[in-house]
Amino acid sequence: MRLRTAALLSIVMGVLLMGLTSPAQAATNEAIDVTGKLADTRTDPAKPVPGVKISVEKDGAEIASGTSGADGSFSIALPGAPIDLLGEVITVKIDTDTLPEGADLRDPKKTSYKVTIKTDSDIQINYAIGPATDNSVGKLTEIGQSGINGIFLGLLLALAALGLSLVFGTTGLTNFAHGELITFGALAAFLFQDQWGWAFFPAALLAVILSGAFGLANDRLLWKPLRGRGTGLIAMMIVSIGLSIFLRNIYQYFFGADNHQYTGVPAGKLWNIGSIGISPKAFYIAVVCVVVLVVVSLAVQRTRLGKATRAVSDNPALAASSGIDVDRVITTIWIVGGALAGLSGIMWGLTNGFDYQVGNKILLLVFAAVTLGGLGTIWGTMAGSIIVGLLVEMSSIILPSELKYVTALVVLVLILLVRPQGLLGRAERVG
C-alpha cells in the first residue's frame, strides 16, 4: 500500500515538475527594472507621452533615471544585484516639468511612489495623465462597494477553509500546511498554461484533480502513519508547520518568487449598479464558489458517505464500532479537502494573482474564518468566512488598505477569548 501511495505522490510531483528544465533561480533577473507606460487619456485612443523624465531615489539620493520613449514606455534598471536590493525602499518620481504642454497628471499631488522591493521581478509604476477626475465617493457607496467585495472575499475564504474544517472534524488535526495545498492548485494550473500552453479551463480542471491526489498522498505518506503510531495532535500540528515550510521552499525553488497571472480569462467590462462596480470575473468566481459549497454541503448532509463523515466527526470510536470504515472516510476527506484547497487557490489567483506563498498569505484569514464559525462545522465555516470577509473589506473604510487583513487577527484573538468553540461549534471539556 505504501509503495502504491509513494508511486502516486511521484506521479503527482512528476507531472508538476515536467517541463521545468531548470530551477527558477537559473532564470533570476540580472537586474530589477522600474517599468511603465505614459499615455494621455484625453484622446481616444490614448496618445503616448514621450520624453518624460522618471527618476529613482534611495535615501534621498538619485540612483537611476530614464525617459519615456516614443511609445510612452520607460524601463529603468536599478543598480546592484537583485538579491542585494531585496528589502530596500525606493522612491519613483516623475518630473512634471518634462510633461508636454497641455498634459498634466490627473492627481497633481501624486508625483512619486514609495516602493519596498520584495521580489526580484520588475516593478510596474503607472502615472495617470489626463483631465482631473473626482475620485471622491459617498459614504453609502463606499460601504456598499466594500460589502460586495466582502461577500466575494468571504466566498473565496469559505472554499479555502472548508477542506481545513473537514480534516479537523474527522481527524482533529490543525493542519498548518493547508496553505500549501491551496498554493499547489494555483501553481499546477499555472504550470499547465505556462509550460504546455493549455487553455485555462482544462488546466484548472486537471489541477483540481491533482490537488485531490496530492491531498491523498499527504495523508497516506505522512498523516496516516502518524495516526497509526498514536502520535499526539500537538506533535502532528508541529509536523504540519515543518511540512508547510518544506513545501513552500520547494515551490519557490521551482517557480521562483515572481507574481504570476493566468491567461485567457478576460476580466470583462465592469458592471455598474448605480455607483457600485462589480467585476464580471469576480461575480462568476463567486458563482463557482457558491455552487461548490452547496454541492459539498448537500453531499455531507444527505449522502451515505456524508453521514458517515458526520459520525466519524462526532465519535470515531463509536463510528468504527457501528461498522463505518473510519480510514476510508478520512481518506475521502483528504481527497475532497485537497481538491477544494486547490480550487480555492486557482480562484484566488484569478482574482488577485499569486506566487509561491499565496496559500500561506491567506492562511490567517482561513484560520480566522474556521475558528469564528466553529472548528469542524461546515455551516460554521461558511458563516465565519462570510463574516471575516465582510469585516476585512469594511475595515478598509477606516484603516489603510495595507492593514485591513489585521482585522482577521483581531477576530481570531477575540473569538478565542470570548467563545473558543466558535459561533456554531460545541463547547467541549478538555482534560
Descriptive report:
The radius of gyration is 24 Å and the shape is elongated. It is α+β, with helices and mostly antiparallel strands and 431 residues long. Strands 5-4-7-8 form a 4-stranded antiparallel beta sheet, with no helix packed on it. It has a 3-stranded mixed beta sheet with strand order 6-1-9, with no helix packed on it. Helix content is 55%, strand content 11%. The protein has helices spanning 2-17, 82-85, 139-171, 178-194, 200-228, 233-255, 280-302, 304-314, 316-321, 326-352, 358-373, 378-395, 406-418; strands at 33-37, 39-40, 47-48, 53-58, 61-67, 73-77, 89-94, 112-116, 123-124, 271-273, 276-278. It has 2 domains: 32-124, Immunoglobulins (Immunoglobulin-like, Sandwich), CATH 2.60.40.10; 141-418, ABC transporter involved in vitamin B12 uptake, BtuC. The longest helix has 33 residues, at 139-171. It contains 13 helices and 11 strands. The model is unreliable at 21-28 (pLDDT under 50). β10 (271-273) and β11 form a beta hairpin.
